[in-house]
Every structure is written in structure tokens, then in C-alpha cells.
Amino acid sequence: MLSLLGDEWTLLIVQRALLGARRYGDFQAALPVSNAVLSGRLQSLTADGLLERSQYQSNPPRSEYLPTAKGRSLWPMLTSIWEWERRWVPEHAEPLPRMYHSACASAFQPVTTCRACGAPAGGKDVAAQWGPSGSWQRSIPSGSNRRRSSGRRSGAALLFPQTMSVVGDQWAFALLVAAFVGVRRFTDFQAQLGAPPATIAGRLSVFTDEGILVQDGARYQLTDKGLAFFPVLVCALTWAQRWFPSPEGPAVVLTHTACGRTFTPALDCDQCGKRLRAGQIIAVP
């Protein structure tokens, strides 16, 4: 999952496709992306099954890029990123647009709920344990993972600047997941993840600088901003386990402590209380 999505341009192109962009010029007009990067990402997104290329004109040949079911099902993760960046990250060159729910004609904020019982759920309300195919050793970065360019050095980082410090760095993603399941001390992060000390120190420094973690003596705690990243993590995990299933069973089993049932996230509108649908979300200035 991180190999596919740990790249800011990939996320932004899929987001624009879900908002209605179809043709090369649509993406070019909506994003500060070079022709070379856009062409490369459209090609890789097609190869990875997130977009489908369809020719709409033969002379001269012209194609459009349509989201597949795999691509469309990323909307909860992208919506959660949009809301987290809009609320918690002030350093955008231009403010991110608000989200508008066409079903109730209101600007809204998504609320993460338990699909089993319908109650709101945050990081403190969900217990995680390894499933049959899960372990730290199988979840941390390996040499087989594709390397992506750093989002913090590109124009896209102006749009998702801090999300990419988590999703765009596989060690950082693993470390933040560890923080959510209760790891607190430097030595425990190192022991669980098996990362070099400099790697752990560097990621902890980034997260404390960005206000995602706060250091209290030898312990690192999630801040309110860090806890608010929970919807992004859980929606990403749900997408990954749907599209990359293991014959052994799930990698991670989530339980909603309030109802005791398996936790699968849903996003509801905070204005009307109804379940959100991808086609009902519109960007407004």
C-alpha cells in the first residue's frame, strides 16, 4: 500500500480523478505538475490498476483516465487527508477548499464511525492486534519497496505538506502506527521496528517539530493533532487489506471497544449525520 500511495503526486492525481478530472489537460490545469511527472504518474497509476485508460478520439488519438473500483475506493482515505490538512496544517500556500455535502447542501467535516454500531470512533476507541499475516517484521520497509521522490521538495508538498511526512516515508508510517498502539519510548520504537537509531531519531524529530508527537522526558505522546490522523491511518489500512489480501488472513484485526465488534471505518457527515458517498463530496472555496 505504501509503495503505491507513498507519493504525493499519486494521491493528488487520484483525488482529482475522483473530483471529476478525466483528460490530461484537466490534471495539468488543476495541479502544479510538470508534463514529465504527470505522464509518468498516469502511466504508473494505469499499470497499478488505480486508473483505466480509455480512448475517446482516434484521429488524432486522445485518451482519458477513469478511476477503477480500486481507485474509487480510496476516497475515504483522501477525504480524511483533506480534512486533516485543512484543519491542522496552517502552512499551505493557499487555504485548502472546504468540503461540501451535496446530499444536505452543507459545508461539512467527516466523522469517523464504526460501521457495525454507527457510533463515532477515534484512535482511543479502537484496539489493534496482529492478524494471521501480520507482524512488525512484515510491515516495515524492505529493499523491495519502490522509492518515491520526497514530497517535501516538490510543488505538491504545498498541498499535502505534512501528510507526506507520514505516508511518503515508510519508516515514519510504521513509527506512527506504533505510537497509536502504545509504543512510547525511543528504545521501544527501535526494538519493535528494528530500525537504526538514527532512523528512529530522525522520524521522532520530524513528528515533534510538526506537533504530531510531544516529548515528555523519555516518552513520546500523540498530541490532539496526532490523534486526529487516525482516520487517515485506519482508512489506508482498510483499503490495503481489501485490495491486497493475504491467504493467511488479515494483517491487522481492529476491534471497536465500545461495541466489541470488528471495527471497519465509515465516514459520516457532521451536519446531517448521513453516511457519506464519494460522489456527494464537492470542493468549494
TrEMBL record:
Residues 1-93, 156-248 form the HTH hxlR-type domain. One of its GO terms (molecular function) is DNA binding. InterPro entries: HTH_HxlR, WH-like_DNA-bd_sf, WH_DNA-bd_sf. Residues 128-151 are annotated as: Disordered. Keywords: DNA-binding, Transcription, Transcription regulation. It comes from the Bacteria. Pfam families: HxlR. This is HxlR family transcriptional regulator [Amycolatopsis mediterranei S699]. It comes from Mycolicibacterium parafortuitum (Mycobacterium parafortuitum). The lineage of its organism: Bacteria, Bacillati, Actinomycetota, Actinomycetes, Mycobacteriales.
